[in-house]
Amino acid sequence: MPFNEFEIQCSENETPQKGDCLLVPIFTSEGIAPNPGGAPTIPDYLKRLVGDRTAELQSELLSLGFKGAYKSSLPLLNWPLEGIRLILVGCGRRSTLNPSRLMVALESSLKTIQSDAGRILISLQDWEGSEIGAIVAASSAASYHLYRSREFGGKRPSMESLWLLGFKKSDALLQQIDVAQAMNRAAARAKDLVNIPPNIKRTQTLADEAKGVATDGIELHIQDDPKWIESNMPCFFTVARGSLLWDPPRWIHLKAGNPTAKKRIALVGKSVIYDTGGYQVKPDNYMRTMKADMTGGATVLSVLDAIRTLD
Question: Among 195, 220, 252, which residue terminates a domain?
């Protein structure tokens, strides 16, 4: 796995301990200008932890000019919480917050952690959306923070556990955590396939990946006859014909059967490994990302693998 996996825990009122890292979302005002002339409101949860230092913290935020703007962050080490790294997460206006924006804001703040971490706690007591939305957003931000491609030569960062505060532990919540973990692995797998350098990535690379997915009730068929593909998929064949001799096209079909299903859902992912091209209309810096032209197929393979693990 291209990131060090971590445990996810949920608690209504877990208290941070010495050595922990606590992330607290902070919002700007709902006016046209974010909190003109004033510091953002400190959430009740943080007020309870800080106690009689609340006014001092409010004054410090004002002097530092931190107003909770979206994707801004303010790390405070060993103050106002002794022995704890407090990171204030700028989330912008509360009315604009959704799981996607929460994930981006959290991931931006996690970048301030430059080393391995023990417990990371995220305060979500003020979250107004669904539980699964918050769990997926927070865990995705953590896995994005930890992700390194397979070519990365250094030591991958790690964390012991991720604590999501404000949720009562239940069987339904544990199932949602399983879904979030499966999504993290799927996203990392897709990114890893995309990040393989194009000089060593082949259609066989995806075929081999599909063979690894095709277990536990998932059927696999790989059509690698160029003549069949030319006759039945002419557009697909035309794009790939420049590499027929050394990297022929492959039509990869995976099927996850469910006898009780009432509908069929088809996921179609395009994966261009070698493009005959034509006129180069992209600037040079965009050509460097052409290795990502197979993201669609990588995504489908990863989603099916996640479904397999959750089934």
Answer: 195
How many domains does the chain contain in total?
A: 2
Q: What is the CATH number for 126?
A: 3.40.220.10
Same domain, 178 and 63: yes
Helices (H), the chain: 44-50, 54-64, 99-110, 131-146, 171-195, 203-213, 226-232, 234-240, 284-287, 295-310
| pTM of full prediction above 0.85 | yes
Whole-angstrom CA distances from 137 to 6, 42, 142, 176 are 15, 22, 9, 12
C-alpha 70/C-alpha 286 separation (Å) is 28
pLDDT digit string (tens) for 233-262?
999 898 888 888 889 999 999 998 887 888
Alpha-carbon distance of 136 to 179, in angstroms, equals 8
Number of neighbouring beta carbons within 10 Å of residue 165: 22
Q: Which domain holds residue 301?
A: 203-310
CA-CA-CA-CA torsion sign (243, 245, 247, 252) = positive
Which residues lie below 8 Å from residue 149, measured CB to CB, with a gap of 6+? Answer: 2, 191, 192, 195
- Identify whether residues 228 and 287 lie together within a single domain: yes
